[in-house]
Write a structure and sequence with these properties.
The chain has one domain. The strands form 2 sheets. A 3-stranded antiparallel β-sheet has the order 2-3-4. It is an alpha+beta fold and 93 residues long.
């Protein structure tokens, strides 16, 4: 994961609003260390936009989607039935 500046004005001036911990099923797909994920949320001091301070790298996003699709494909549920597809996704969360 990488640290980011404000998405709107690109400023690096920010104020910490909150620290978030919890389980993130999708991030568990790509990180060896499982358990609580720690995120920081900031407010930009220049424009006021609220954003998460870290985001996934491009290779991490790709790996996350690949791992998620492996789980879905391994269960042989993908069909034209949208309800079944979304029920499978919810079960994995």
């Amino acid at each position: 994961m990488i640290n980011v500046n404000c998405y709107i004005c690109k400023s690096n001036k920010k104020k910490l609003l909150l620290k978030q911990t919890g389980k993130d099923t999708y991030l568990d797909l790509i990180h060896r260390k499982k358990g609580n994920i720690f995120n920081k949320w900031y407010s930009c001091l220049d424009c006021g936009f609220v954003f998460r301070g870290t985001v996934l790298r491009e290779n991490e996003i790709k790996r996350m989607y690949e791992q998620n699709m492996k789980i879905i494909n391994s269960r042989s549920v993908i069909s034209n039935n949208k309800r079944s597809f979304f029920q499978l996704l919810v079960k994995n969360i």
